[in-house]
Amino acid sequence: MKFFIDSANLNEIREAASLGILDGVTTNPSLIAKESNVNFKEHILKICEILNWEGASVSAEVVATDYEGMLREGRDLAKIHPNVYVKLPMTKAGLQGTHTLSKEGIRINQTLIFNATQALMSAKAGSTFVSPFIGRLDDIGHEGMGLVGEIREIFDNYGFNTQILAASIRHPLHVIESARLGADIATMPFKVIEQLLKHPLTDIGLANFLKDWEKVKQ
Prior knowledge:
Blueprint: E1 2-6, H1 10-18, E2 22-26, H2 29-34, H3 40-50, E3 57-61, H4 67-78, E4 84-89, H5 92-103, E5 108-113, H6 116-125, E6 129-132, H7 134-139, H8 144-158, E7 163-166, H9 172-181, E8 185-188, H10 190-197, H11 200-216
Parallel strand pairs: 1-2, 1-8, 2-3, 3-4, 4-5, 5-6, 6-7, 7-8
C-alpha cells in the first residue's frame, strides 16, 4: 500500500519523505490556507520538488465549481509539474471534468467520495484515484471502512484500474484496516505517520538494551 501525507506544510513533507516510506502528497484548499502568505502554484511546485522522483504523486485541487472553470484550472495545475494529479470534487461538473481531462491524459483524484456509487461513476469516467473520506463518515455514525471494502469489491468485479485512496484518516487503526481491505493508498496527517512508528514495547526494549549495555561497554 502506498503512503501519502495529507499536508501542505513543507517541513512535514520533507520529514515524512526522509523516512523512505512516502509515495505522495494530497493537498486541498483548507490545507493550503493553513500555510500563511503562500502563492498556490509556487507552493505546489515546491512540494513537487521535494517529491521529485518518477511515480510520486502530488494532488492539487481546483476551486472552481463549474465545468468550464474546472477544465481551465485543471489544465493549468497539470502544467506545474509532471507529478501533479488534479483533484476534482464528486459533483456533476466534477464528474464531467474527470471525463474530459482524463481523456487529455491528465490524472484525476476524485475527492469527497462518500458512497460506492460515486466511486463507481468516477472510475467509469476515467479517474486515476477515488478518495473515500473514512473519518468524515465515522463522524456522522456511518462505518467509513465499510465503504472502502465495498469499493474494493466493485472495482475487482469489473477490473477497474482506478486506485482507492483512503482519505480523512484519523488514527493508525484506519491505516491498518485500509490495508486489510485492499486500499491502494492511504493519505494521512503527519501526526498519524508519527503514531505508526511508535509502540511502548519498542521504547521499553530500547531502554533496557541501553541500560544493559552500560554494564558491559568498554
